[in-house]
Amino acid sequence: MINERLLEIILDSFWQILLPGLAVTIPLTAVSFFFAMIIAVVTAMVQFAKVPVLRHVARFYIWVARGTPLLVQLFVVFYGLPDLGILVDPIPAAILVFSLNEGAYCAETVRASLEAVPAGQMEAGRCVGMSYLQVMRRVVLPQAMRIAFPSLANSLIAMVKDTSLASNITVTEMMMKTRQIASVNQEFLALYIEVGLIYLLFCTVLTKVQSAVEKRLNYYGRKED
């Protein structure tokens, strides 16, 4: 049976952990993913259009971002750049790293989705007088994003959990707050399970939203067919 002291610690710490989750973890995820999607779409379109020099730059960026650990990237930006005289505050550093890292993964998802759209869509758009960018914006990209949505939603859910790494560069999000509470109460197992359940709650909500949006997209897809 759980003792009264432990129960009191768990109940008292719940809001202390949840509030940084709502105030830091969720906004950090949302802002980072927003910029990641901008990076992903631009990078994917550069590759899809096969722009010679930019395509190689995009491939190099993706290679580095996907081939090095996220934690190392955080340390390089937050702890390493000061050696060059570049100081970045914790939250901007986290947003920068999460955006660049996630943007590389999402870029490959968007690129694959662009290539999955029938080539005839581009040709048809050009035949009616639209420019390349107009066809991409009005015809190809909307279809590609519908194809990419499930994978992109999974990336968003994964990013919620990845934000826990921001505690290593002094961002006071849920994991950092849990460490602080556990260091005082010495109830590491219970508190780490508690924060894990809160992450699970956030991810479950996002999963439900993902499922609802997918059903809506499938419904409109059938109507268009």
Give a structural overview.
The longest helix has 46 residues, at 4-49. It contains eight helices and no strands. It is mainly α and 225 residues long. Helix 1 (4-49) packs antiparallel against helix 2, helix 1 (4-49) packs antiparallel against helix 7 and helix 2 (52-67) packs across helix 4 (90-116). The chain has one domain: MetI-like fold, CATH 1.10.3720. It has helices at residues 4-49, 52-67, 70-80, 90-116, 119-127, 132-162, 174-185, 188-224. Helices cover 84% and strands 0% of the residues.
Give the secondary structure arrangement, pairings included.
Blueprint (H helix, E strand, L loop, with lengths): L3 H46 L2 H16 L2 H11 L9 H27 L2 H9 L4 H31 L11 H12 L2 H37 L1
Helix pairs in contact: 1-2, 1-4, 1-7, 1-8, 2-4, 3-4, 4-6, 5-6, 6-8, 7-8
What key phrases describe this protein's structure?
mainly alpha; 225 residues; MetI-like fold; 84% helix; 0% strand; single chain; 8 helices
User: Structural class, judged by helices and strands?
Assistant: mainly alpha
CATH domain fold name: MetI-like fold
In the CATH classification, which architecture applies? Answer: Orthogonal Bundle
Average pLDDT over all residues: 90
Helix content range: over 70%
How much strand? under 5%
Uncertain parts: none
Q: What's the domain count?
A: 1
How many alpha or pi helices? 8
CATH superfamily: MetI-like
SS elements, strand count: 0
